Amino acid sequence: MFDLTGKVALITGGNSGIGLGMAHALAAAGADVCIWGRSEEKNREAEEELRRHGRRVLALTCDVSDEGRVEECFARTVVTLGKVDSCFANAGVGQRGTPFHTTTAAEWREIVGINLEGAFFTFRSAINHMIDREIRGSLVATSSLASVSGQPRGEHYAATKAGLLAMVRSIAVEYARYGIRANCIIPGWIETGMTKDILDLEIIQKAVLKRIPQRRWGVPEDFGAIAVYFASDASAYHTGDTVTIDGGYIRF
Q1: pLDDT tens digits, 184-238
Q2: Which of 12, 136, 151, 226 would be 158's cystine partner, CB 3.0–4.6 Å?
Q3: Is this prediction's pTM over 0.90?
Q4: Is residue 157 among the annotated active site residues?
Q5: Identified catalytic residue from 157, 175, 229, 249
């Protein structure tokens, strides 16, 4: 039921962090994978890692806030790998630490463009493809705890992550008739290249780590199993949902 042999998974922001953790698990379960990322160097390194699973791997340079580039990369993904069965809209950028009252329109639009519009462009391409090919596919978005709790100095980030929850729920309802399911993942405090400097701060260690019942930061590998589940036939009746993976932080 969890065997992904013959399936193709696309992961945006798949060259590092949570996205790469997902990509490794998907390839290990038998899927061919395509990763999109803005850094050519990180794409090459991730592609080399992923090829060790013996599956087909494609890495494309893509800024998901660029509508035309998303459509171009999706078309190339299909030409190279034949189809897309599951699409993970994981690409995103974090907050800038700017007080809300001094946030510029340019900064607001940059965060919205990547985190929310990027997922819109990506999922729109995936849905058109799945309907055209009659693929009973899976769409998964990476949200954040900021979508359900206050995020000082990160209102734009929180707004985009909450927007993903609403968009995914609506997609799940609208496209269930085509056999397409859509779900969200809410990660907790995860140690990645983007967050390591913050998590290493003593004040964060004291204020946050003690609130995590498991007493550790999450790691990208913690998202491998949920990615395989949502890409597999095991989740055929699971849609419109939000799964939180945070070591129990939100419940403490």
Answers
A1: 999 999 999 878 888 989 998 989 999 999 999 999 999 999 999 999 999 999 9
A2: 151
A3: yes
A4: yes
A5: 157
